[in-house]
Amino acid sequence: MKTTFHPANKRGHANHGWLNTHHSFSFASYFDPNNMNFGALRVLNDDVVAPNMGFGTHPHENMEIISIPLSGDLEHQDNMGNKSIIKSGEIQVMSGGTGVQHSEKNKNADLPVNFLQIWVFPNKKNVQPRYDQQKIDPEKVHNQFGQILSPNPDDDGVWIHQNAWFYLGRFDETLQKNFNLKDTKNGVYVFILKGKAQIENQVLNQKDAFGIWETEEFQMHIEAKSEILMMEVPMDF
Fold it and tell me: Which family does the entry's similarity section mention (predicted)?
């Protein structure tokens, strides 16, 4: 078993006024050659966008891009003809593939939007770009880890071109959970959205992260009033 601990206060940070962002991995002006990615997980940005502001139209290709709003409303528009509002409690995925142009902005004039911008390297290049958006069933993530992303279009949640699974859990009870990896060649990147948890004697607080790999399973002690995102991704790809 191998592990790595990424405390919240060691993340890259930039405040552009309209955008206050924290980077779990090297991104934009934050560069650490020892912290480029966790396996196929390339980007985990914790973005807060000011009212009526956002990212103008820009390109992506050969990347799986996932957006998870934590609060507020995110407006998406792309050159595939999609225009939608992504709200807290939903998940959006876009396959860049051969190339796509999109924009994201805060829909509201009076409240910021906080969302996770996640990039995963795909296992297939130059695929047809695609878009999907789904609501997360609150019952499936209540005091348990509910699957919100997988490699399979017929599974729970959205899907991407990678051997990856994401899980979300919202806990109002203190629990001990055993987590079994879908693929033992994968690793799991645990991100504490709210509350507190402990893995392998490492205490994790809000926005702390913990990576674990070369194991089939691990245990987690979860405190009440916690919300946790688990990202299982290939370590070699």
Answer: Belongs to the pirin family.
